[in-house]
Amino acid sequence: MARRLSSLRQARGLTQEGVADRLGIASQNIQRIESGRQNLTLQTIERVSGALGVAIDDVLHVTAGPGARPRFLEVERAGVLRVSAEPPVPVPVFRLSDGARFARGTRPSPLGWAVFAEDVEPGAFIVRVEGSAMEPRIPDGAWSLFRPLKRPPTPRSHVLVALGSGDDVEVIVRRLDSDDGGRLTLSTLQPGEAPLVTGGDIEVRVLAEFVRTVAHDS
C-alpha cells in the first residue's frame, strides 16, 4: 500500500511536500506513510487519495508483479485488510444526519468505506438507520445500503427522506405509500401509527431508496 501511494504520487508529478500542503500536514507524515512506518486507516487512505486526485479503488488496487493476476485489498468488518483476487467495490458510509447535506446538494465526508466483492450500483452509500420505526424490516442500528434515485422509487419501497429546509432538516427512513404530485404519504411499520402526509409548508425530498441491510449493531 505504501509503495502504491508513492507510485501514484510520482506518476502525477507531485512532491511529498505538495501532497502534505494539500492535506495541511507536515511532509514527514507523508514520508512515514510512503515508507510503511505509519498504520493506514481507511480514512487516511481516503484523504491521501483525494489529495492525489485519484479514486480510492485506484489506491486499493494491488498487483503482484509483471504477468501476475491482479489482486485487490478487501476490508473485513473488523477492519482487517486481506488480499483477494476479486476487485472490491468501495461504498462510502455516512451518518444518517448527513442526509441533510445531501438535501442541500453537497456531499459530506464519509465516516469510512465498506468494500463489497459483488456489484453495487454507482452512487450507492451506507447509513446507520436509527430507531424502531421500520422494524422488523430495518432494525434499529442497522447499517443499510441505499441507492441514489435515478428513477422513481418502487411503490411501497423504503426511502431516505429529508424534511425541512436550510439548517432545519430532519432525515428519516419511511415506507413511501404514495406520491401524489409531490404530496407524499410516508408510513412506519409500527401497527397503529398514523402515516405522515407531507405538503403545504413542509419541504420534502426523497434522497435514496433502501436496498438491504449489510450489518447490524447488536
List keywords for this structure.
Umud Fragment, subunit A, elongated, 12 strands, alpha+beta, 6 helices, 218 residues
Describe it.
This protein is of the alpha+beta class. It is built from six helices and twelve strands. The chain has two domains: 2-86, 434 Repressor (Amino-terminal Domain); 93-216, Umud Fragment, subunit A (Ribbon), CATH 2.10.109. It has a nine-stranded mixed beta sheet. Strands 1-2-3 form a three-stranded antiparallel beta sheet. A hairpin with a 2-residue loop joins strand 8 and strand 9 (168-180). Helix 2 packs across helix 3 (27-34). The two termini are 33 Å apart. Mean pLDDT is 78; it is low at 62-80.
Which word captures the global form?
elongated
**Total helical elements:** 6
Q: Compute the number of structural domains.
A: 2
CATH superfamily of the largest domain, please? Answer: Umud Fragment, subunit A
Q: What is the name of the CATH topology of the largest domain? A: Umud Fragment, subunit A
Strand line-up across the major sheet: 5-4-6-7-12-8-9-10-11
Helix/strand order: HHHHHEEEEHEEEEEEEE
SS-derived structural category: alpha+beta
| Rg value | 21 Å
How widely separated are the two ends?
33 Å
Largest sheet geometry: 9 strands, mixed
Extended strand count = 12
List segments where confidence is low: pLDDT < 50 over at least 5 consecutive residues.
Answer: 62-80
User: β content, as a range?
Assistant: 25-35%
Percent of residues in helices comes to 10-25%
- Which class of the largest domain in CATH terms? Mainly Beta
